[in-house]
Amino acid sequence: MDVIIIDGQTVEQDPEGYLRKLTDWQPVVAEHLARQEGIELSEAHWEILNLLRDFYQEYEMSPAMRPLVKAVAAKLGPDKGKSIYLMSLFPGSPPKLASKIAGLPKPTNCL
Description:
Elements: E1 2-6, E2 9-13, H1 27-36, H2 43-59, H3 65-76, H4 83-89, H5 94-101
Antiparallel strand pairs: 1-2
Helix pairs in contact: 2-3
């Protein structure tokens, strides 16, 4: 088990870097996780992270790419609801990376 300390708070991570407890998440934790991934969080990143957290609260799951694109398009508009846009913010696998930074579990159908 990996442990990081952020502002005096002990935060446990699984071997892939996802938080073990959803309640450990807060914006400063997201910033730390993003820095570990080489990402400087902008307002555009926060829009997606907040949308993901709302999605998780409603559906109790982290979305894979298609549901994520659909949710982003519905809430933030068609220009942002495109996989290319999400990949520009969260390179590689946007659902996995964004979920990790948002303090959520890895999407179930992502390897």
